Request: fold
Amino acid sequence: MIISHVFDGAGDGVLRVTILRDLDITNRAAAALQIEALVSAHRPGSVVVELPAGTPSPATLSALARAQRMCQSLAIPLTATGPDASEPEPTLESIGSPGTRRLMFGARRDR
Reply:
């Protein structure tokens, strides 16, 4: 299994997708297709993709970029998070510190 998901149909409907492990070239297309199929099936108001721990591989980022392009074409917001999304957001003082970095379409904290 490459991804898991939970769809909360209450309210606007949030599709939460978890990429269970870092992707490689052999399974990145499958993960992107699975995310696209889930979005097509559920038509959520927003999508949250939780990335695996550590620095994401280029294949993981490629699958995420593909999902983001598809969501943008449907006007569905997509947010990418790290494995500990329950942690508080970084302050302005800590954004430039080692261990944190900003992504264009979400937030992720490296460990």
